[in-house]
Amino acid sequence: MEIRVGSxxxxxxxxxxxxxxxxxxxxxxxxxxxxxGEPLENGRRFILxxxxxxxxxxxxxxERLEDAEAAGGCLSDAELRRMGDEAGKDxxxxxxxxxxxxxxxxxxxxxxxxxxxxxxxxSAGNINLNCLLMLAPPEIRDxxxxxxxxxxxxxxxxxxxxxxxxxxxxxxxxxxAWLKENGPAIMNRVRR
Length: 192
Prior knowledge:
It is elongated, with a radius of gyration of 21 Å. Helices cover about 50% and strands about 15% of the residues. It is built from 6 helices and 7 strands. The chain is of the alpha/beta class and about 190 residues long. Strands 1-2-4-3 form a 4-stranded mixed sheet. The chain starts with a strand and ends in a 5-residue tail after the last helix.
């Protein structure tokens, strides 16, 4: 069911949940989830109490969509699959290249489309890398690979960890700066 509360069009869903919940999607859709039998008036009050929060989420969603459009628009499922295949080859070659330089061994390398991380390293030595790295320059891909491989030496971000990253990539700070500046627009190309 759809209701209007103030200036908001809200989709209301009832379920077996115990509390009222609210989701604001980047495309501007607002969904109110309510326990079965909860009076609709309680949901209306909840929305009015959260008006400031809703407006801030809508603003963030608009900015993300603008960033995605500026970066080339949201990626289709087919584009993501192609990028995943390409990343599987390209990023794996980079891992193999840097393994002896970092001086570590690893388990498996997995390519995923992640919305919040460029990569990760498990304590078992498995490396996960984001296929969206294919939208970044080669030197940025190298940085993320080296970063994750260095976690095989230090599973933290201690000074010793950064010393290892710097030993392999002395200019790693510039690469981090590039990711901080340009990374959000790349991540926002994935539909949330």
